From TrEMBL:
Residues 398-417 are annotated as: Disordered. This is O-antigen ligase-like membrane protein. Keywords: Membrane, Transmembrane, Transmembrane helix. Residues 404-417 have a biased composition (Acidic residues). The keyword Kinase does not apply. It comes from the Bacteria. The keyword Transmembrane applies. The chain crosses the membrane at residues 12-31, 43-61, 73-96, 102-121, 133-153, 193-226, 238-261, 316-337, 344-364.
Length: 417
């Protein structure tokens, strides 16, 4: 044990990389969620800083095969669909009526995605057991503090221009989305009691604030997790193709609702009917879309009524047209199938995490905000860290020199072997 430690710490680069990795994970997994309790913008600062530290740590460690990993990722269906979606969104800047705001939004989203992608690529091939406990610690603090602030400081906690901008809703959304990589990490370490306690604390926080979208997202994600424990591949296929059908058939569903309302002489109001009216009146524009960021601006200037849908289903069709909808559907299918095909130990958490985020997006919250994109970026890093801890082939009896000393859990496993 002492010899392994001396060999590991004899390499200054490896020691520096471990320190940077530890600092980055503390910043991302603990400080960022906790800071959401008192500030509205910690994600904008902490996510890029933490991601850049991860990238630097990866460069210092100088792991071999990073080029091969990058090439393999870029050849995957998920990367292909995501790259085409970004390409089409960028191309739509040529015809969007508000190019200045749209360019700003596109650049922020692209930079966030790029930094998160390279941060994930820079994570070490095998994570330490202690790293898996950081996110549960952060979420436990946020859950308890959310309950306390809801009852004892409601004015400060609920103050904001819109519900989506309040500290309460942002904290609850953070808990709902990040719970699943935290549960997955604890499950990998077989800390089932801690996982149950954390899930109970988050559920109590969501019930205390009673944010409907968080309640729905948490409930559906929990159902998916429970079902996927036994059949992750089948659940991934059902969810992927189901979401793709929901995206591609959204205009047809809106037109059916319009026809039923007209036949039944019912009130002609509601987001679904706004969607149908736009299709009838401007159907040629749904081939290319109106351009990035126009859905939000159209409501502000009165082109669309105030009750226009806020769902990502409407925004994809309205802004990016049929090509954007197809790309998003392919991305959804690829992501869910990949999650279902992951190792059984982590597949349920991956699927539940995807469902939690997509429920919020489909429900119609302000998912085009940079805050929401940043939260998804943090969730992606947390899920990737969980995947790095998943069991692979037979565990070696002793760590390599550059891996450093064994953690207590790993030491016990090695001694038993």
């Amino acid at each position: 044990m002492a010899a392994a430690a001396s060999r590991a710490y004899a390499d200054p680069a490896a020691a520096a990389a471990r320190l940077l990795l530890w600092l980055a994970l503390i910043l991302l997994m603990v400080l960022t969620p906790v800071a959401e309790l008192v500030f509205r913008g910690p994600l904008y600062v902490f996510l890029p800083v933490g991601a850049c530290i991860l990238i630097v740590a990866g460069r210092v460690a100088q792991e071999r095969g990073s080029g091969l990993k990058l090439a393999r990722l870029l050849r995957s269906p998920i990367a292909g669909a995501a790259l085409f979606l970004f390409f089409w969104a960028g191309l739509s800047l040529l015809w969007t009526p508000f190019p200045d705001e749209a360019v700003t939004r596109f650049l922020k989203a692209a930079l966030t995605a790029l930094v998160v992608f390279f941060a994930i690529l820079s994570l070490p091939e095998k994570t330490r057991a202690t790293n898996l406990y950081l996110l549960p610690i952060g979420l436990a603090i946020v859950a308890v503090a959310t309950i306390v602030l809801t009852f004892f400081a409601p004015r400060m906690f609920w103050q904001g221009d819109t519900p989506d901008a309040t500290l309460a809703q942002r904290c609850v959304m953070t808990l709902t989305v990040l719970l699943w990589p935290a549960i997955g990490g604890l499950a990998l370490r077989e800390k089932w009691l801690l996982a149950v306690v954390l899930a109970g604390a988050v559920t109590a926080a969501v019930l205390a604030t009673f944010v409907e979208i968080a309640l729905v997202g948490l409930a559906l994600a929990a159902v998916v997790y429970a079902v996927a424990v036994s059949e992750p591949q089948r659940v991934g296929q059902i969810l992927g193709f189901g979401l793709a059908a929901l995206v591609l058939l959204a205009p047809a569903a809106a037109l059916i609702v319009l026809a039923l309302v007209s036949v039944g002489h019912l009130p002609h109001v509601g987001p679904g009917l706004v969607f149908a009216d736009v299709i009838v009146q401007e159907w040629p524009r749904f081939i290319t879309g109106h351009g990035l960021d126009f859905a939000t601006r159209a409501v502000e200037i009165g082109v669309l009524p105030a009750d226009a849908p806020g769902s990502i289903l409407f925004k994809i069709w309205y802004e990016l047209g049929v090509l954007g909808a197809i790309a998003f559907a392919v991305l959804a299918v690829s992501a869910f199938i990949a999650a279902g095909n992951a190792p059984v130990a982590i597949a349920p958490a991956l699927l539940a995490g995807l469902v939690a985020g997509l429920v919020v997006a489909v429900w119609g919250t302000e998912t085009t905000q940079i805050w929401w994109m940043s939260l998804n970026g943090l969730d992606a890093i947390a899920l990737a860290l969980m995947c790095k801890a998943a069991p692979r082939a037979k565990r070696p009896l002793a760590p390599a020199a550059e891996d450093g000393p064994l953690e207590p859990d790993e030491e016990a496993d090695a001694l038993e072997a």
